[in-house]
Amino acid sequence: MKLARFAVAGQILEGALRDDGQLAVAGGGTYAPEEVVWLPPVVPTKVIGLALNFADHAAELDMKSPEDPALFFKPLSSLVGHGAPVVYPAGVDYMHYEVELAVAIGKRCRRVKAEKAQEVIGGYTIGNDVTVRDFVKNFYRPPVRAKGYDTFGPVGPYLVTPDEVPDPNALELRSFVNGELRQTGNTSQFIRPVPELIEFISMIMTLEPGDMIWTGTPKGLSHVYPGDVMRLEIDRLGALENKVVAE
User: Fold this and answer.
1) Per-residue confidence (pLDDT) for residue 87, from 0 to 100
2) From CA 124, how far away is CA 155, in angstroms rounded?
3) What CATH number is given to the structural domain containing 185?
4) Residues 120-148: pLDDT tens digits?
5) pLDDT at position 36 over 50
6) For residue range 67-94, what is the model confidence (pLDDT) as tens digits?
7) What values do phi and psi take at 7, rounded to 5?
8) Taking the mean position of all CA atoms in its chain, how far away is CA 13?
9) CB 73 within 8 A of CB 98
10) Is 214 helix (H, G, I), strand (E, B) or coil?
11) Measured distance CA(76)–CA(81) in Å, rounded
12) Domain total in the chain
């Protein structure tokens, strides 16, 4: 099932995508996707990002993947939905997209073993870990300034339930800018697969329903500028599209 959160006439609704492309809400109401304002499909207490989880991405940055997962928090204030503008900060040089599988937690959990990780997953969605590369230096780690601007966390459009994603470690990822393919990869190339990430993170902190783990991006970064349209696709999860606008 593909679940969505959206706003219509100032009211926040939750619904599911039907086979005919309409969004159906409890009680029988339906809406066309073009009628709604898309919102992030979950409401997290935290978003945990993972750096350098693809060897080819680490290589393109001339970096090595760390021995332990390199984690950071994506601010909740950065989150926006499908179709929302992403603001290009004034004065920066190099801003880019990062297509990522986002894993949403389905129930409160702590100290989850990898073999039990599937039991706590509520679904999957697409995250765009927008980043200003100017600020990704050792001095600026963790990369709060690089990744923490408002609008730098597009996510959605849907939360896709686990029954529709038999293997989250075998999904194709693609990024397009203005229709041009810029980035490809497959979650089979993860250095640390989803169950291992859930085990590692839940050993540190309690995970709440709606919390997201953004699992890293493959090789293929490039500049985006005001006016560009970023379209990110992951097999089975749909497409997340956002336009870049000037500050």
Assistant:
1) 98
2) 10
3) 3.90.850.10
4) 999 999 999 999 988 876 544 677 889 99
5) yes
6) 788 899 999 999 999 999 999 999 999 9
7) -120, 140
8) 21
9) no
10) strand
11) 12
12) 2
